[in-house]
Amino acid sequence: MSPLCRESVRSGSCQMRVLKRTLLGIATAITVATFAACDTPGVTLIDPDLSDDDDRSLTITVQLEDTTLARTLGWSRGVPSADVYLMRVGDEFDPITIVTDSTGTAVLETVLPGLYRMAAYRMLGEEETGPTDGAIRAFGDGRVAQVAAGRTIPMTLLADQPSSLVFSEVQLVGRYDGTNWAEYDWFVYFELHNNTDSTIYLDGMLYGHAWKTARDYGTFPCVVTEPFRMDPIGLWSNWLHRFPGSGADYPVAPGQTVVVALDAVDHSVVHPNLPDLTQADFELQGHGDADNPDVPNLPEVGPDIYWYSHGVGPTPTAPMFLAKALDLDALAQMIDPFWAHPWVRIPREAVLDVVDFDGMSPDVDALIAPPCDWSVHPSLNRLEAVHVLNLYDATFTAQRRVLQRRDGRFVLQDVNTSFVDFLEAKRNPGSIGNLRVSVQRDR
Fold it and tell me: Strands, E, within 225-339: which ranges?
């Protein structure tokens, strides 16, 4: 008989119907669900790892990284009413959500130990913006951490950044016929949004993938890849595309979005659930892909050539970044010790935005190595965004939250934590929709 069943059996046999832990409840108490009763009376099923005397709780404290702003908001003791999300790696459950009290503390009364994805998020309500002169602010943090009963874990929220160009929507590969994974996956794209009040020129800018995490290399533990993915000086990349133009050919006005397709063609001819991207503003150029002559290309510029002949499209297996125009020959380069690929380091000060996505489903977690604490240096991004819907319905995309409207344009949230910066909503290339969040008042 399973050790999960401790019995005081008078007679007969005990047959387990369910041997599964389930987490129930939201707020400051969450209970480990009891296992289904045995058929024989007098039998009680409990978790043998816990005794009545054990401390089964997890305490999370939430502070602002900007202590001056914390004092201004009256949050010196901690961030009140912050949402804290917990996702146990490999579990099939939705994130557990608990809320901090007036001291910025949240307690989970009963927790299953294990590796968790953790995030914390707080957005000012309109009635709270007096100390910020009416400005809506958002704050976020995230990482992967080992959780054990009796532990206290601090979270430190980064404030929204005065970002310039940001990734505002990302279409990732997923099922598009509702049932099966198809062989056609050229329909991915990403959207960029000018989050400032000034015109920005795309000419010469770089788009690419940053160093892959241990979840890609599988056999290499996080400690081995840490020097590359956690380099405080910058991002290591080997697959890069460069925007065309000689300096002022491709302006992006304040509040404007542009769409960059892997292939700027009508993918709906393959399946009606796929997008028509013939009106994309740019397309990625590979060494064997279809080309729309009416759409400017982003050629591959190395230092390696992507094996996937259509170009380096959005993916859940590596962080994506946008960087200022740089001379790649003038940057630090290396040959990696794993696959002997050439890499170049993009200086951190040249990086405009970094976003990261992960499947975060039991199936995905079972197939690949556990996630590392961070996939890039936490000053650039702190936790990958969930894209569960994208996995099973490719009509959904990852879309950046709207923070507020200012002078008639949308200002998007950027707290360098993809987990809270992005939501999933129906595909909407080329514009910022109201599906993402209820937009705050126009200031």
Answer: 234-237, 239-242, 251-252, 257-261, 282-285, 297-299, 320-323, 333-335
217 and 124 together in one domain? no
Residue numbers of the domain that contains 261 = 165-426
Q: Classify each residue of 52-79 as buried b or exposed e, where b means 16 or more C-beta atoms within 10 Å of its C-beta.
A: eeeebbbebbbbbebeebbeebebeebb
CA 22 – CA 403 distance, rounded (Å): 35
Buried-state track 399-417, b at ≥16 Cβ within 10 A, e below 16: bbbbbbbbeebbbbbbbbb
pLDDT, tens only, 158-180: 999 988 999 999 999 888 887 77
Residue 101: count of CB within 10 angstroms of its CB:
15
Half-sphere exposure of 312 (CA within 13 A, CB side): 26
Separation of alpha carbons 168 and 221, rounded Å = 32
- Domain annotation covers residue 145: yes
CATH number, position 95 = 2.60.40.1120
The reported pTM is 0.85
421 and 281 in a common domain = yes
Which among 122, 22, 142, 34 is positioned nearest to 80, based on CA atoms?
122
The answer to whether 106 and 59 have CB atoms below 8 angstroms apart is yes
Burial state string for 188-222 with b = 16 or more CB within 10 A and e = fewer than 16: bbbbbbbbbeeebbbbbbbbbbbbbbbbbbeeeeb
Q: Within this chain, do residues 238 and 280 fall inside the same structural domain, yes or no?
A: yes
Same domain, 17 and 57: yes
Distances (CA, A) of 421 to 83, 414, 416: 13, 6, 7
pLDDT digits (tens, 9 = 90+) for 45-61: 334 455 555 789 999 99
Residues 439/418, Cβ–Cβ less than 8 Å: no
Measured distance CA(181)–CA(384) in Å, rounded = 23
SS3 130: helix
Provide the 3-class DSSP secondary structure of residue 365.
helix
Cis bond upstream, residue 303 (ω within 30):
yes
**Confidence (pLDDT) at 55:** 80
